[in-house]
Amino acid sequence: MSKKSAIEIIKEASDGLRGTIRESLRDEITGAIREDDQALIKFHGMYQQDDRDRREERAAKKLERLYSFMIRLRLPGGFLTPAQWIAVHEVAGENATGVIKITSRQTLQLHGMIKSKIKPTIKAFNEAKLDSIATCGDINRNVLCSSHPKESPIHEEVFGYADKISRLLMPRTRAYYEIWLDDEPLLDKKEEEDPLYQDRYLPRKFKIAIAIPPNNDVDVFANDIGLIAVISNGHLEGFNIAIGGGLSSTHGNPDTYPRLATLIGFVPGEEKTLKVVYEIAAIQRDHGNRSDRKLARLKYTLDRLGVDWFREELERRVGFALEPVRTTVFTSRKDHFGWHQNAEGLWYYTVLVENGRVTDTGTAQVKSALLAIAHSGKANFRFTCNQNVIISDVKASDKAAIEAILDAYGVILLTEKSSVIRRHAMACVALPTCPLALAEAQRYLPTLLDKMEPLLQKHQLQQEEIIIRMTGCPNGCARSYAAEIGLVGTGPGRYNLQLGGDRIGQRLNQIYQENIGEEEILASLDGLLESYAAGRLTGESFGDFAIRKQWVSSHDAVN
Length: 559
Ligand code: SRM
Ligand code: SF4
Prior knowledge:
Radius of gyration: 23 Å
Bound molecules: siroheme, iron/sulfur cluster
Number of strands: 20
Strand order of the largest sheet: 1-2-5-4-13
Shape: globular
Largest sheet: 5 strands, antiparallel
Distance between the termini: 37 Å
Structural class: alpha+beta
């Protein structure tokens, strides 16, 4: 057997993810925590980071790095009440940078929290009935669900599964409550024995999303498990199950690759669905690679052992056969901006939040607008997997009041006057907080779009909903491999230009040009867009055109 990776040993020796986190917190000599604890706090929803913009200056003054922490909330399906939004807003201002970041997985992150502020933050979250358990680490993460109430009359029923799955796969350890909320330890440790995670947890992060066709706004095939709701005559029949999605690769390591999930069957009813989800995680626990973390995701387990082996093993564990995949069709993968009415007659407004950064700028004060709406108590908040927010569940009689707030803070202008490409674009966090960033992403994409917009206009493509996504490294946090135009950071100011992804998240893109800078990116796109404008077929997307023209070879698509 291969040697276990260092993280495996840390997990097993951690006493239910406690490690020495308490001692690390008490140590006032450093803003950091002990190395082993840095791995463990991830399971509690936090990452230790440092301000990379200030590394050189700090080093010159012989100061340690400017350490701080990022915390990520667990929000299955991405839902918050107005009171919870107010709580997050206040904590962000008091304990973090003030910016609230909507992530590509439908939840919220706060950055820049110093060590002494973590406990007060978690306590404030707890008072608002929020937690950050298992939002990071080798464990099931925040469970996604299609955020658009309009898509289905039974949205709420499907949405309920996000919470059920999240609860089903929560760790049993009480460490979070003891360390951060000062709960007394259990008298009988047996009560926290964990049949799923045991003391080793999963070999790697584990992600689940639920999609409600025809909108693949959750990018369901990018997940370890994708559940696709099968709805007929307004009734939820069950779910098609797709497994083994994951988007990361490592530059220069050909053994790593992005992969879309494979459909393995259909499962009816809640009991069977939850059983299948649980056992897929258990198979990954037992068979995932625990020596090489680069090859530890379910996608590699699946490709190593084979889809047929996996399905048989799953059927053996759950005790029933999966049914053949049912037909479902995705036609889009986007947020519906502006006002819409849901199946119950309530209204919702999808707000553009560029790259998920909720803040106030000279042009639009999104953060102030959301706070004012929360104080009005007239709407809930639903976050999308495209890093936007939906002001939801608005009564017809309250619509004008909400609209007045959005208007007063410039949010309507921002949402409705931004270019089509900007509204469907996404960038990951990258610099200055992400330790893995090779290039800028959320701080740079807006500027690149400023320069792309005139090109789109020149070729009369400004109404085309081309999906562009940028990540600061090949980990793919803004799902850049599943975009029609993907920009994947390779070094400062340099990116791989990737083309040929489809518009609905069923085909990955491929490298078209490697390691190029802004000038080459814009020059290439100018020519490519010109050919597209001249030669596209009716309704043909940019990604499909790229494949037809063989600018890149076609990646296997989900069918
Ligand atoms: Fe991610 C690591 C940010 C969605 C693949 N991701 C990171 C870290 C925590 C860096 C680190 O390990 O220290 C980044 C923190 C940056 C910061 O300062 O906030 C980070 N990932 C993000 C977010 C915030 C991007 C965003 O701008 O929205 C997203 C948070 C989602 C959430 O709420 O949970 C985010 N990350 C994703 C996605 C997209 C998705 O899941 O739909 C992916 C690709 C899908 C996948 O998992 O395959 C993704 N992140 C990764 C990976 C590569 C995993 C792998 O299989 O190798 C890493 C690195 C790692 O785990 O070692 C990573
Ligand atoms: Fe950081 Fe890379 Fe993820 Fe961007 S894609 S947030 S740079 S890990």
